[in-house]
Design goal:
Blueprint (H helix, E strand, L loop, with lengths): L6 H4 L7 H9 L1 H23 L3 H28 L8 H18 L7 H27 L2 H4 L3 H30 L9 H25 L19 H12 L2 H31 L4 H9 L1 H19 L1 H15 L2 H7 L11 H28 L1 H9 L4 H29 L13 H26 L6 H17 L1
Keywords: Membrane, Transmembrane, Transmembrane helix
Pfam family, one: MFS_2
GO cellular component, one term: plasma membrane
Length: 481
Protein backbone atom coordinates (compact mmCIF):
# COMPACT_ATOMS: atom_id res chain seq x y z
CA UNK A 1 0.00 0.00 0.00
CA UNK A 2 1.21 3.50 -0.92
CA UNK A 3 -0.48 5.73 1.63
CA UNK A 4 -0.44 9.02 -0.25
CA UNK A 5 -1.62 7.74 -3.63
CA UNK A 6 -5.25 7.34 -2.66
CA UNK A 7 -7.83 10.08 -2.42
CA UNK A 8 -8.61 9.21 1.16
CA UNK A 9 -5.14 10.31 2.19
CA UNK A 10 -5.45 13.56 0.26
CA UNK A 11 -8.56 14.48 2.21
CA UNK A 12 -6.46 14.76 5.38
CA UNK A 13 -5.20 18.11 4.10
CA UNK A 14 -6.72 21.17 5.81
CA UNK A 15 -9.05 23.35 3.70
CA UNK A 16 -7.43 25.78 1.29
CA UNK A 17 -7.31 29.22 2.93
CA UNK A 18 -7.47 32.60 1.19
CA UNK A 19 -3.77 33.04 1.94
CA UNK A 20 -2.91 29.71 0.32
CA UNK A 21 -5.05 30.47 -2.74
CA UNK A 22 -3.53 33.93 -3.09
CA UNK A 23 0.05 32.67 -2.84
CA UNK A 24 -0.67 29.82 -5.23
CA UNK A 25 -2.50 32.00 -7.74
CA UNK A 26 0.12 34.76 -7.61
CA UNK A 27 2.57 32.40 -9.28
CA UNK A 28 0.51 32.54 -12.48
CA UNK A 29 1.64 36.17 -12.87
CA UNK A 30 4.98 34.77 -14.08
CA UNK A 31 3.33 33.02 -17.02
CA UNK A 32 1.08 36.05 -17.65
CA UNK A 33 4.06 38.43 -17.82
CA UNK A 34 5.99 36.10 -20.12
CA UNK A 35 2.99 35.62 -22.44
CA UNK A 36 2.26 39.33 -22.52
CA UNK A 37 5.82 40.08 -23.59
CA UNK A 38 5.83 37.44 -26.32
CA UNK A 39 2.37 38.40 -27.63
CA UNK A 40 2.64 42.18 -27.68
CA UNK A 41 6.25 43.37 -27.46
CA UNK A 42 8.68 40.77 -28.81
CA UNK A 43 8.09 41.35 -32.53
CA UNK A 44 7.95 45.11 -31.98
CA UNK A 45 11.25 45.11 -30.07
CA UNK A 46 13.31 42.81 -32.28
CA UNK A 47 11.74 43.84 -35.59
CA UNK A 48 11.62 47.62 -35.04
CA UNK A 49 14.11 48.54 -32.31
CA UNK A 50 16.86 45.92 -32.63
CA UNK A 51 16.58 45.61 -36.40
CA UNK A 52 16.16 41.86 -36.89
CA UNK A 53 14.10 40.93 -39.95
CA UNK A 54 10.48 40.26 -38.79
CA UNK A 55 10.45 36.98 -40.73
CA UNK A 56 13.46 35.79 -38.73
CA UNK A 57 11.72 36.77 -35.49
CA UNK A 58 8.75 34.61 -36.48
CA UNK A 59 11.03 31.73 -37.46
CA UNK A 60 12.81 31.91 -34.09
CA UNK A 61 9.48 31.66 -32.26
CA UNK A 62 8.40 28.76 -34.50
CA UNK A 63 11.59 26.85 -33.66
CA UNK A 64 10.99 27.51 -29.95
CA UNK A 65 7.45 26.11 -30.32
CA UNK A 66 8.88 22.94 -31.84
CA UNK A 67 11.11 22.60 -28.78
CA UNK A 68 7.97 23.02 -26.65
CA UNK A 69 6.51 19.99 -28.43
CA UNK A 70 9.16 17.88 -26.70
CA UNK A 71 9.58 19.66 -23.37
CA UNK A 72 5.94 20.21 -22.33
CA UNK A 73 4.64 16.61 -22.20
CA UNK A 74 7.96 15.24 -20.93
CA UNK A 75 8.09 17.74 -18.06
CA UNK A 76 4.48 16.89 -17.25
CA UNK A 77 5.22 13.18 -17.16
CA UNK A 78 8.43 13.70 -15.18
CA UNK A 79 6.67 15.78 -12.54
CA UNK A 80 3.96 13.11 -12.22
CA UNK A 81 6.57 10.46 -11.42
CA UNK A 82 9.26 12.32 -9.44
CA UNK A 83 10.21 10.89 -6.04
CA UNK A 84 11.68 13.50 -3.68
CA UNK A 85 11.35 14.75 -0.12
CA UNK A 86 9.69 17.88 -1.53
CA UNK A 87 7.10 15.91 -3.47
CA UNK A 88 6.48 15.77 -7.20
CA UNK A 89 5.98 19.47 -8.03
CA UNK A 90 8.01 21.79 -5.80
CA UNK A 91 11.53 20.77 -6.88
CA UNK A 92 10.65 21.91 -10.41
CA UNK A 93 9.06 25.14 -9.19
CA UNK A 94 12.06 26.16 -7.08
CA UNK A 95 14.56 25.12 -9.74
CA UNK A 96 12.84 27.20 -12.44
CA UNK A 97 12.78 30.56 -10.61
CA UNK A 98 16.28 31.89 -11.38
CA UNK A 99 16.62 30.42 -14.92
CA UNK A 100 13.25 31.84 -16.02
CA UNK A 101 14.01 35.30 -14.63
CA UNK A 102 17.57 35.38 -16.00
CA UNK A 103 16.64 34.18 -19.49
CA UNK A 104 13.75 36.67 -19.67
CA UNK A 105 16.14 39.48 -18.73
CA UNK A 106 18.56 38.37 -21.48
CA UNK A 107 15.72 38.38 -24.02
CA UNK A 108 15.34 42.16 -23.71
CA UNK A 109 19.07 42.86 -23.57
CA UNK A 110 20.46 41.34 -26.79
CA UNK A 111 24.02 41.96 -28.02
CA UNK A 112 24.75 44.25 -30.98
CA UNK A 113 25.27 41.48 -33.50
CA UNK A 114 24.38 41.08 -37.17
CA UNK A 115 21.25 39.38 -38.54
CA UNK A 116 22.58 35.82 -38.24
CA UNK A 117 23.96 36.34 -34.74
CA UNK A 118 20.77 37.99 -33.51
CA UNK A 119 18.63 35.24 -35.03
CA UNK A 120 20.65 32.52 -33.28
CA UNK A 121 20.60 34.51 -30.02
CA UNK A 122 16.81 35.03 -30.11
CA UNK A 123 16.17 31.41 -31.02
CA UNK A 124 18.27 30.02 -28.17
CA UNK A 125 16.92 32.47 -25.59
CA UNK A 126 13.32 31.83 -26.68
CA UNK A 127 13.84 28.07 -26.35
CA UNK A 128 15.40 28.53 -22.90
CA UNK A 129 12.58 30.77 -21.66
CA UNK A 130 9.79 28.54 -22.92
CA UNK A 131 11.49 25.44 -21.53
CA UNK A 132 12.23 26.96 -18.12
CA UNK A 133 8.72 28.42 -17.78
CA UNK A 134 7.36 24.94 -18.57
CA UNK A 135 9.37 23.58 -15.64
CA UNK A 136 7.43 25.98 -13.44
CA UNK A 137 4.01 26.35 -15.06
CA UNK A 138 3.18 22.69 -15.66
CA UNK A 139 3.97 21.41 -12.12
CA UNK A 140 2.37 24.52 -10.63
CA UNK A 141 -0.86 24.09 -12.62
CA UNK A 142 -0.91 20.40 -11.72
CA UNK A 143 -1.17 21.30 -8.01
CA UNK A 144 -4.85 22.26 -8.32
CA UNK A 145 -6.23 18.69 -8.12
CA UNK A 146 -3.92 18.03 -5.14
CA UNK A 147 -4.62 21.18 -3.14
CA UNK A 148 -8.30 20.28 -3.03
CA UNK A 149 -10.52 17.37 -4.01
CA UNK A 150 -13.63 19.57 -3.68
CA UNK A 151 -15.40 20.14 -7.00
CA UNK A 152 -16.16 23.84 -6.47
CA UNK A 153 -12.98 24.62 -4.54
CA UNK A 154 -10.97 23.65 -7.59
CA UNK A 155 -12.76 26.32 -9.61
CA UNK A 156 -11.91 28.84 -6.91
CA UNK A 157 -8.22 27.89 -7.09
CA UNK A 158 -8.29 28.21 -10.88
CA UNK A 159 -9.95 31.63 -10.59
CA UNK A 160 -7.04 32.88 -8.46
CA UNK A 161 -4.59 31.66 -11.10
CA UNK A 162 -6.51 33.27 -13.93
CA UNK A 163 -6.89 36.58 -12.07
CA UNK A 164 -3.18 36.92 -11.35
CA UNK A 165 -2.19 35.76 -14.86
CA UNK A 166 -4.34 38.44 -16.50
CA UNK A 167 -3.41 41.08 -13.93
CA UNK A 168 0.33 40.35 -14.09
CA UNK A 169 0.43 40.56 -17.87
CA UNK A 170 -1.69 43.70 -17.98
CA UNK A 171 0.44 45.47 -15.34
CA UNK A 172 3.34 45.25 -17.77
CA UNK A 173 1.21 46.56 -20.68
CA UNK A 174 0.11 49.55 -18.62
CA UNK A 175 3.71 50.13 -17.48
CA UNK A 176 4.94 50.08 -21.07
CA UNK A 177 2.24 52.18 -22.74
CA UNK A 178 1.68 54.50 -19.79
CA UNK A 179 5.25 55.15 -18.61
CA UNK A 180 8.21 53.50 -20.34
CA UNK A 181 7.27 54.16 -23.97
CA UNK A 182 6.07 57.74 -23.49
CA UNK A 183 9.51 59.35 -24.08
CA UNK A 184 10.56 61.18 -27.26
CA UNK A 185 11.55 57.92 -28.99
CA UNK A 186 8.19 56.30 -28.23
CA UNK A 187 8.06 52.64 -29.19
CA UNK A 188 11.62 52.79 -30.59
CA UNK A 189 13.18 53.47 -27.18
CA UNK A 190 15.63 50.59 -26.60
CA UNK A 191 16.36 51.66 -23.02
CA UNK A 192 12.65 51.45 -22.24
CA UNK A 193 12.58 47.81 -23.33
CA UNK A 194 15.72 47.08 -21.33
CA UNK A 195 14.10 48.61 -18.25
CA UNK A 196 11.00 46.54 -18.97
CA UNK A 197 13.19 43.42 -19.05
CA UNK A 198 14.64 44.18 -15.62
CA UNK A 199 11.26 44.88 -13.99
CA UNK A 200 9.54 41.92 -15.61
CA UNK A 201 12.34 39.50 -14.66
CA UNK A 202 12.25 40.58 -11.01
CA UNK A 203 8.46 40.21 -10.89
CA UNK A 204 8.64 36.77 -12.50
CA UNK A 205 11.18 35.60 -9.91
CA UNK A 206 9.08 36.99 -7.04
CA UNK A 207 5.88 35.41 -8.37
CA UNK A 208 7.44 31.95 -8.70
CA UNK A 209 9.05 32.05 -5.25
CA UNK A 210 5.90 33.36 -3.53
CA UNK A 211 3.87 30.55 -5.06
CA UNK A 212 6.41 27.82 -4.27
CA UNK A 213 7.00 28.99 -0.69
CA UNK A 214 3.30 29.70 -0.13
CA UNK A 215 2.35 26.12 -1.00
CA UNK A 216 5.40 24.43 0.54
CA UNK A 217 3.54 23.59 3.75
CA UNK A 218 1.14 21.41 1.73
CA UNK A 219 3.86 19.03 0.55
CA UNK A 220 3.09 16.39 3.25
CA UNK A 221 -0.51 16.25 1.98
CA UNK A 222 0.33 15.86 -1.70
CA UNK A 223 0.20 12.56 -3.57
CA UNK A 224 3.25 10.50 -4.30
CA UNK A 225 3.73 8.30 -7.37
CA UNK A 226 3.09 4.58 -7.16
CA UNK A 227 6.19 2.35 -7.33
CA UNK A 228 5.29 -0.19 -10.03
CA UNK A 229 8.55 -2.07 -10.34
CA UNK A 230 8.68 -1.41 -14.10
CA UNK A 231 11.76 0.27 -15.51
CA UNK A 232 11.32 3.61 -17.24
CA UNK A 233 11.67 3.46 -21.01
CA UNK A 234 10.53 5.44 -24.01
CA UNK A 235 7.93 2.74 -24.71
CA UNK A 236 6.55 2.93 -21.18
CA UNK A 237 6.39 6.74 -21.21
CA UNK A 238 4.47 6.89 -24.47
CA UNK A 239 2.21 3.97 -23.52
CA UNK A 240 1.19 5.63 -20.27
CA UNK A 241 0.73 9.02 -21.93
CA UNK A 242 -1.56 7.51 -24.59
CA UNK A 243 -3.57 5.71 -21.88
CA UNK A 244 -3.95 8.95 -19.97
CA UNK A 245 -4.92 11.11 -22.95
CA UNK A 246 -7.46 8.61 -24.33
CA UNK A 247 -10.02 9.75 -21.74
CA UNK A 248 -13.09 10.86 -23.76
CA UNK A 249 -13.74 13.94 -21.65
CA UNK A 250 -10.12 14.96 -22.13
CA UNK A 251 -10.50 14.67 -25.90
CA UNK A 252 -13.50 17.02 -25.70
CA UNK A 253 -11.44 19.53 -23.72
CA UNK A 254 -8.51 19.09 -26.10
CA UNK A 255 -10.46 20.07 -29.19
CA UNK A 256 -12.23 22.91 -27.41
CA UNK A 257 -8.81 24.21 -26.31
CA UNK A 258 -7.55 24.08 -29.89
CA UNK A 259 -10.51 26.13 -31.15
CA UNK A 260 -10.43 28.53 -28.18
CA UNK A 261 -6.73 29.16 -28.87
CA UNK A 262 -7.30 29.84 -32.57
CA UNK A 263 -10.08 32.30 -31.73
CA UNK A 264 -7.94 33.98 -29.05
CA UNK A 265 -5.01 34.27 -31.45
CA UNK A 266 -7.22 35.82 -34.13
CA UNK A 267 -8.76 38.27 -31.67
CA UNK A 268 -5.40 39.30 -30.18
CA UNK A 269 -3.73 39.67 -33.59
CA UNK A 270 -6.40 42.07 -34.83
CA UNK A 271 -7.17 43.79 -31.51
CA UNK A 272 -5.16 47.00 -31.92
CA UNK A 273 -5.96 47.20 -35.61
CA UNK A 274 -9.69 46.99 -34.90
CA UNK A 275 -9.44 49.61 -32.16
CA UNK A 276 -7.32 52.03 -34.18
CA UNK A 277 -8.69 51.59 -37.69
CA UNK A 278 -12.18 50.09 -37.44
CA UNK A 279 -13.31 52.16 -34.44
CA UNK A 280 -10.93 55.09 -34.89
CA UNK A 281 -9.85 55.24 -31.24
CA UNK A 282 -6.86 57.38 -30.25
CA UNK A 283 -3.72 56.08 -28.51
CA UNK A 284 -4.94 57.53 -25.21
CA UNK A 285 -8.30 55.80 -25.59
CA UNK A 286 -6.52 52.51 -26.32
CA UNK A 287 -4.45 53.03 -23.15
CA UNK A 288 -7.67 53.49 -21.14
CA UNK A 289 -8.99 50.36 -22.84
CA UNK A 290 -5.92 48.47 -21.63
CA UNK A 291 -6.37 49.72 -18.06
CA UNK A 292 -9.94 48.41 -17.89
CA UNK A 293 -8.64 44.84 -18.24
CA UNK A 294 -8.07 44.97 -14.46
CA UNK A 295 -11.82 45.45 -13.92
CA UNK A 296 -12.63 42.56 -16.26
CA UNK A 297 -10.15 40.29 -14.44
CA UNK A 298 -11.74 41.17 -11.08
CA UNK A 299 -15.28 40.54 -12.34
CA UNK A 300 -14.28 37.23 -13.95
CA UNK A 301 -12.54 36.25 -10.70
CA UNK A 302 -15.87 36.62 -8.87
CA UNK A 303 -18.21 35.26 -11.54
CA UNK A 304 -16.42 31.95 -12.30
CA UNK A 305 -16.65 30.34 -8.80
CA UNK A 306 -20.22 31.63 -8.38
CA UNK A 307 -21.32 30.14 -11.71
CA UNK A 308 -19.57 26.85 -10.96
CA UNK A 309 -21.37 26.50 -7.63
CA UNK A 310 -24.70 27.44 -9.17
CA UNK A 311 -24.66 25.38 -12.37
CA UNK A 312 -21.61 23.11 -12.28
CA UNK A 313 -18.51 23.65 -14.43
CA UNK A 314 -19.78 22.36 -17.76
CA UNK A 315 -23.14 24.14 -17.64
CA UNK A 316 -21.50 27.32 -16.34
CA UNK A 317 -19.03 27.23 -19.23
CA UNK A 318 -21.86 26.78 -21.73
CA UNK A 319 -24.08 29.54 -20.30
CA UNK A 320 -21.30 32.08 -19.79
CA UNK A 321 -19.80 31.12 -23.14
CA UNK A 322 -22.98 31.75 -25.09
CA UNK A 323 -23.26 35.16 -23.44
CA UNK A 324 -19.60 36.07 -23.96
CA UNK A 325 -19.24 34.85 -27.51
CA UNK A 326 -22.41 36.50 -28.79
CA UNK A 327 -21.61 39.80 -27.03
CA UNK A 328 -18.05 40.00 -28.42
CA UNK A 329 -18.91 40.33 -32.15
CA UNK A 330 -22.16 42.24 -31.49
CA UNK A 331 -20.72 45.80 -31.72
CA UNK A 332 -18.98 44.99 -35.01
CA UNK A 333 -22.12 43.40 -36.45
CA UNK A 334 -24.15 46.41 -35.27
CA UNK A 335 -21.68 48.73 -37.01
CA UNK A 336 -22.03 46.75 -40.24
CA UNK A 337 -25.80 47.15 -39.96
CA UNK A 338 -25.46 50.89 -39.40
CA UNK A 339 -26.71 50.74 -35.80
CA UNK A 340 -23.62 52.10 -34.00
CA UNK A 341 -22.54 55.77 -33.59
CA UNK A 342 -20.08 56.99 -36.19
CA UNK A 343 -16.33 57.14 -35.42
CA UNK A 344 -15.57 60.29 -33.45
CA UNK A 345 -19.00 60.39 -31.82
CA UNK A 346 -18.49 60.99 -28.06
CA UNK A 347 -20.86 58.12 -27.28
CA UNK A 348 -18.92 55.51 -29.27
CA UNK A 349 -15.88 54.95 -27.04
CA UNK A 350 -17.70 54.60 -23.69
CA UNK A 351 -20.30 52.34 -25.33
CA UNK A 352 -17.81 49.94 -26.93
CA UNK A 353 -15.57 50.08 -23.83
CA UNK A 354 -18.43 49.13 -21.48
CA UNK A 355 -19.40 46.22 -23.73
CA UNK A 356 -15.79 45.03 -23.80
CA UNK A 357 -15.38 45.18 -20.00
CA UNK A 358 -18.44 42.96 -19.55
CA UNK A 359 -17.52 40.64 -22.42
CA UNK A 360 -13.89 40.17 -21.37
CA UNK A 361 -14.96 39.41 -17.80
CA UNK A 362 -17.25 36.68 -19.15
CA UNK A 363 -14.47 35.30 -21.37
CA UNK A 364 -12.12 35.15 -18.35
CA UNK A 365 -14.84 33.38 -16.34
CA UNK A 366 -15.46 30.90 -19.18
CA UNK A 367 -11.74 30.16 -19.45
CA UNK A 368 -11.56 29.66 -15.69
CA UNK A 369 -14.43 27.15 -15.49
CA UNK A 370 -13.20 25.32 -18.61
CA UNK A 371 -9.65 24.93 -17.24
CA UNK A 372 -11.04 23.89 -13.85
CA UNK A 373 -12.64 20.93 -15.62
CA UNK A 374 -9.15 19.53 -16.26
CA UNK A 375 -8.70 18.88 -12.53
CA UNK A 376 -11.66 16.49 -12.40
CA UNK A 377 -10.14 14.31 -15.11
CA UNK A 378 -7.45 13.24 -12.67
CA UNK A 379 -9.56 10.95 -10.48
CA UNK A 380 -11.41 9.55 -13.50
CA UNK A 381 -8.07 8.59 -15.01
CA UNK A 382 -6.85 7.24 -11.67
CA UNK A 383 -9.78 4.83 -11.57
CA UNK A 384 -8.92 3.56 -15.06
CA UNK A 385 -5.13 3.36 -14.81
CA UNK A 386 -4.22 3.50 -11.12
CA UNK A 387 -2.03 6.56 -11.80
CA UNK A 388 -2.40 10.27 -11.10
CA UNK A 389 -1.30 12.18 -14.20
CA UNK A 390 -2.10 15.80 -13.45
CA UNK A 391 1.12 16.95 -15.10
CA UNK A 392 0.41 15.17 -18.39
CA UNK A 393 -3.10 16.65 -18.63
CA UNK A 394 -2.05 20.22 -17.89
CA UNK A 395 1.07 20.01 -20.07
CA UNK A 396 -0.93 18.71 -23.04
CA UNK A 397 -3.51 21.48 -22.93
CA UNK A 398 -0.91 24.18 -22.18
CA UNK A 399 1.16 23.11 -25.18
CA UNK A 400 -1.95 22.93 -27.36
CA UNK A 401 -2.95 26.43 -26.33
CA UNK A 402 0.52 27.83 -27.04
CA UNK A 403 0.93 26.23 -30.46
CA UNK A 404 -2.53 26.58 -31.98
CA UNK A 405 -2.78 30.24 -31.00
CA UNK A 406 -0.39 30.79 -33.90
CA UNK A 407 -3.09 29.47 -36.23
CA UNK A 408 -5.25 32.37 -35.09
CA UNK A 409 -2.49 34.78 -36.08
CA UNK A 410 -2.35 33.04 -39.47
CA UNK A 411 -6.13 33.41 -39.82
CA UNK A 412 -5.80 37.12 -39.03
CA UNK A 413 -3.21 37.48 -41.77
CA UNK A 414 -5.48 35.71 -44.25
CA UNK A 415 -8.36 38.05 -43.42
CA UNK A 416 -6.13 41.10 -43.95
CA UNK A 417 -5.00 39.68 -47.28
CA UNK A 418 -8.54 38.89 -48.43
CA UNK A 419 -9.80 42.40 -47.65
CA UNK A 420 -6.60 43.88 -49.15
CA UNK A 421 -5.84 45.91 -46.04
CA UNK A 422 -3.09 48.47 -46.84
CA UNK A 423 0.22 48.18 -44.93
CA UNK A 424 1.35 51.16 -42.88
CA UNK A 425 -1.65 53.31 -43.83
CA UNK A 426 -2.99 56.07 -41.58
CA UNK A 427 -6.40 55.21 -40.07
CA UNK A 428 -8.08 58.09 -41.88
CA UNK A 429 -6.75 56.95 -45.28
CA UNK A 430 -8.24 53.43 -45.30
CA UNK A 431 -11.30 53.14 -47.56
CA UNK A 432 -14.62 52.61 -45.71
CA UNK A 433 -15.39 49.56 -47.86
CA UNK A 434 -12.15 47.87 -46.73
CA UNK A 435 -13.04 48.51 -43.09
CA UNK A 436 -16.55 47.16 -43.68
CA UNK A 437 -15.10 44.03 -45.28
CA UNK A 438 -12.69 43.63 -42.36
CA UNK A 439 -15.58 43.65 -39.88
CA UNK A 440 -17.61 41.33 -42.10
CA UNK A 441 -14.87 38.68 -41.98
CA UNK A 442 -13.72 39.30 -38.39
CA UNK A 443 -16.98 39.05 -36.43
CA UNK A 444 -18.59 35.96 -38.08
CA UNK A 445 -15.27 34.06 -38.02
CA UNK A 446 -14.91 34.64 -34.29
CA UNK A 447 -18.54 33.70 -33.65
CA UNK A 448 -18.21 30.40 -35.53
CA UNK A 449 -14.96 29.53 -33.73
CA UNK A 450 -16.28 30.32 -30.25
CA UNK A 451 -19.53 28.39 -30.73
CA UNK A 452 -17.62 25.41 -32.18
CA UNK A 453 -15.47 25.35 -29.04
CA UNK A 454 -18.60 25.32 -26.89
CA UNK A 455 -19.97 22.39 -28.87
CA UNK A 456 -16.80 20.45 -28.02
CA UNK A 457 -17.20 21.38 -24.34
CA UNK A 458 -20.72 19.91 -24.48
CA UNK A 459 -19.15 16.47 -25.03
CA UNK A 460 -17.41 16.60 -21.62
CA UNK A 461 -19.05 14.07 -19.29
CA UNK A 462 -17.80 14.62 -15.70
CA UNK A 463 -20.22 16.61 -13.51
CA UNK A 464 -20.18 17.16 -9.75
CA UNK A 465 -22.04 13.91 -9.02
CA UNK A 466 -19.68 11.96 -11.28
CA UNK A 467 -16.63 13.51 -9.62
CA UNK A 468 -17.89 12.67 -6.14
CA UNK A 469 -18.62 9.11 -7.27
CA UNK A 470 -15.04 8.82 -8.52
CA UNK A 471 -13.77 10.03 -5.13
CA UNK A 472 -16.00 7.49 -3.35
CA UNK A 473 -14.72 4.60 -5.46
CA UNK A 474 -11.10 5.64 -4.93
CA UNK A 475 -11.68 5.87 -1.18
CA UNK A 476 -13.14 2.35 -1.17
CA UNK A 477 -10.15 1.14 -3.14
CA UNK A 478 -7.83 2.66 -0.53
CA UNK A 479 -9.71 0.92 2.29
CA UNK A 480 -9.47 -2.43 0.52
CA UNK A 481 -5.74 -1.84 -0.09
Amino acid sequence: MVSREGVAGAELAPPATIGLKSAYGFGAAAFGIKNNGFDYFLLLFYGTVVGLEPGLVGLAILIALCADALSDPLVGYWSDNLHSKWGRRHPFMYAAAIPVALSYFLLWNPPDWGQTGLFVYLTLIAILIRTFITFYETPSSALIPELSTDYDERTSLQSFRMFFAWTGGNVMSVLMFGILLTGPLGMRDREAFETYGIIASVLIFIAIMVSALGTHSRIPYLHRPVARGERYSVRRIFREMIETLSEKSFIALFFSTVIFAIASGLSAALAFLMLNYFWGFSEFQIFIWTCTVFFSAAIGFIVAPWASRRWGKKKATMILGVLAFTIQPAPVLARLAGLMPENGDPLLFPLVLAINVVDLSLIIAVTTTAYAMIADLVESNQLRTGRRNEGVYYASLTFTRKTTQGLGVLAAGLILSIVQFPEGAEPSSVAPQILWNLGAFYAPTLLVLWLSALWCISRYRIDKAGHEENLRQLAERDVRA
